[in-house]
Specification:
Layout: H1 2-25, E1 44-47, E2 50-53, E3 64-70, E4 73-79, E5 85-87, E6 94-105, E7 115-119, E8 124-129, E9 139-142
Antiparallel strand pairs: 1-2, 2-5, 3-4, 3-6, 6-7, 6-8, 8-9
């Protein structure tokens, strides 16, 4: 009788372990996409010769990048998720812009990357001026954004 009871308990234990193993071995589910009510936002500022960003509000966790441009042409793209502060990449004289971008995935078939990067910060414009001597460090200054155009009242 004890041998039969032991066998019943063993079978019940194995069934219980199989039932729980199915739930624990399953992969976690992640939210795919950015909900319309999420508004990722960050702020960029110039700190000496470094670009500094704030934490991203409403961050969905996708790829973040700094996008550097000169005369409307892309010069460099740098990963921003792990770097809240980044030295200015270009040391040549000129006026540059940088913006923080977030990748918004699009889930479609195929093997090519789907989605796009969208700006989630202010556009920071700065000017690089060479030092007096070649060995002197470059001078990086913030270019203030243009004043907004006055709004004319409707007639």
């Amino acid at each position: 009788m004890t041998r039969q009871r032991f066998g019943t308990i063993a079978v019940l234990f194995i069934l219980a372990m199989l039932a729980f193993a199915g739930k624990s071995a399953a992969q976690p589910t992640y939210k795919l996409g950015v909900k319309p009510d999420l508004k990722p936002l960050a702020t960029l500022k110039l700190d000496g010769s470094k670009i500094q960003r704030t934490e991203v509000d409403d961050d969905p966790g996708f790829r973040l990048q700094y996008h550097f441009k000169k005369d409307g042409k892309t010069l460099a793209v740098a990963a921003a998720r792990a770097h809240e502060t980044l030295p200015v990449p270009q040391k040549e004289a000129g006026t540059y812009t940088v913006v923080l971008e977030l990748f918004y995935p699009a889930y479609k078939g195929g093997t090519v990357q789907k989605g796009e990067f969208k700006a989630i910060s202010n556009v920071l414009t700065y000017q690089v001026e060479p030092g007096a001597k070649p060995e002197d460090p470059v001078k990086v200054t913030l270019v203030p954004p243009p004043a907004p155009a006055p709004v004319e009242p409707k007639k």
